[in-house]
Write a structure and sequence with these properties.
CATH architecture of the largest domain: Roll
CATH topology of the largest domain: ph1033 like fold
Number of helices: 8
Oligomer: single chain
Number of domains: 2
Number of strands: 14
Distance between the termini: 53 Å
């Protein structure tokens, strides 16, 4: 089944023009290593092997940053399949190249961008202004790659220059589509206004070289909405937005994310906590969290005013 991904081509799209002209996508993580014999079917196995190598080469990087970089590397080299569609920011604000993966992984020795996939770039550029807000937010998230397959119909229409369909959610676990739509905006609001929130007084968003990597942080059970760390570096906080989902679903999801953080990311002396944010609590959520001492619930409030001039 064809999938759709956003792929950044270098920091601030610095390699986008070369990749477009030469017909490839790639990355420069662990650029001295030919990965041809190490592309395991499961990205977690790849991370176990290469996170220590990444940290040795980049001793200033945290385990969190190393895990994210290795996961991105695996996605580009192995996770993307022939026939998948790639959207890559051009370097010009608000525009993305579109192309189709043609080849498996290959390595270009003595190059700062050596891990590559051959691609057929389409004769089309997608503008963010033509996207639905949900797709615009997802394709604009910080990070080398992002899975956009949930917006397949809209992307195909944009490629074909048809008007986009604005999808709220096709997820069967969503009980409240209104909350889902509001919380799609809430995630971006929290990221953009973090320092002015109550959370920002105690926690920092995870960053790497000044870029936020704590939004949609990839794990083996899906992406964490927001990952933060306490200012004293002792607590990693997993934040999950309820997004109108059933309580059992969101509690199970955040527990899986916390388990991943506990097993794969904690340094000595650190612990993990969880926070669910939603519009309204319910009895099922209250009961579930009553036996989860490390997970809290926080309700957000919408303040909407009309002012007559």
């Amino acid at each position: 089944m064809k999938k759709y991904f956003k792929v950044m081509l270098g920091r601030k799209s610095c390699m986008a023009e070369e990749c477009h002209q030469q017909g490839y996508i790639g990355t420069g993580f662990l650029h001295r290593i030919d990965l041809s014999d190490s592309l395991y079917d499961y990205w977690r196995d790849f991370n176990k092997k290469f996170i220590p190598q990444y940290i040795r080469e980049n001793p200033d990087k945290s385990k969190v940053a190393a895990g994210l970089s290795c996961a991105y590397l695996w996605t580009i080299c192995k996770g993307l399949r022939k026939g998948d569609i790639v959207l890559s920011p051009t370097g010009s604000k608000g525009e993305l190249y579109v192309g189709e993966i043609l080849s498996d992984y290959y390595y270009v020795k003595d190059n700062d961008f050596p891990h590559r996939r051959r691609i057929k770039w389409y004769d089309v550029i997608i503008r963010r202004d033509d996207m639905s807000e949900a797709l615009r937010n997802s394709s604009g998230a910080i990070g080398t790659t992002a899975d956009l397959s949930a917006y397949a119909d809209e992307i195909e229409k944009l490629i074909g220059t048809q008007a986009p369909t604005r999808v709220i959610s096709n997820n069967p676990d969503v009980e409240d589509p209104v909350s889902f739509a509001l919380e799609k905006h809430l995630e971006d609001f929290l990221i953009q206004n973090w320092e002015h929130t109550a959370l920002g007084r105690k926690y920092n968003l995870f960053t790497d070289d000044g870029e936020i990597i704590g939004q949609q942080y990839q794990t083996d059970t899906g992406p964490i909405d927001i990952l933060a760390i306490s200012k004293d570096k002792k607590i990693l906080l997993v934040i999950e937005l309820k997004r109108g989902r059933a309580s059992d679903v969101v509690v199970g999801q955040i527990q899986r994310y916390m388990g991943y953080v506990k097993d794969e990311m904690l340094e000595k002396g650190q612990k993990v906590k969880g926070l669910i944010i939603g519009l309204e609590p319910d009895e099922r959520l209250k009961r579930a969290l009553s036996v989860c001492s490390d997970i809290e619930f926080c309700r957000y409030k919408i303040d909407f005013k009309l002012i007559k001039d």
